[in-house]
Automatic annotation (TrEMBL):
Superkingdom of origin: Bacteria
Protein's UniProt keywords contain Cell cycle: no
Name used for this protein in its record: CBS domain-containing protein
PANTHER family on file: CBS DOMAIN-CONTAINING PROTEIN CBSX2, CHLOROPLASTIC, CBS DOMAIN-CONTAINING PROTEIN YHCV
Organism: Paratissierella segnis
Entry keywords, A to Z: CBS domain, Repeat
Cross-referenced InterPro entries: ACT-like_dom_sf, ACT_dom, CBS_dom, CBS_dom_sf, CBS_domain-containing
Domain (CBS) ranges: 7-65
All residue ranges annotated as the ACT domain in the record: 141-208
Amino acid sequence: MLVKNHMLTKEKLTIVDLEETIENTLKRMGQESFLSLPVVNNGDLAGIIMKETIYRGYVEEGYDNFQDYITNKKVKDIYTNKVRFIHETDEIEKASHVLGELKIPFLAVLDSNNKFTGILTHRAIFNTFSNMLGINKGSSKLVIDLRDISGELARLTNLIKEENINISNIAMMDSKIEDNVRIVLKLDIDDTKSLTDKIRNSGFIVEN
């Protein structure tokens, strides 16, 4: 899965310019309850401005009147240019790791010419992995550990096929057991007891 298939494109973003006032910036944030916004300069990403930074600046700079503060201050006075970039063709897993390590609201996305084309947010990554795990797909979930050898997954799915049960989603991840892999299945059935017994009797480990 590539970043470009899950990012918000530049055309869909709410953005602010370096010369924009903080008053206008807060209005833009309030329209969609944003906590931060990308900052652009001549169409290129310049950085990011966060609501928390705006209010902290008001306190630290000793203004007596908040309206004076947001009217006189501009984005260029408060924003940060510390933005982490990732490319459209990078894997979503890489982006997830970077966002998990850094305390930033989004990753800026570049195309093959290193031009800013959009952002990738925590929400986008969460939705992607939710879809991978089949959240809201299928009535029941089974978590099964199987040996990491050729043919084991096919043997498992054949058992399910024999029961005429549809698999609506399947995901694979690391198991806590050495030389095993963990499979998460979403199934279009309500009661999994009979199937669970059959899978266990065939030598697979079904998590409770």
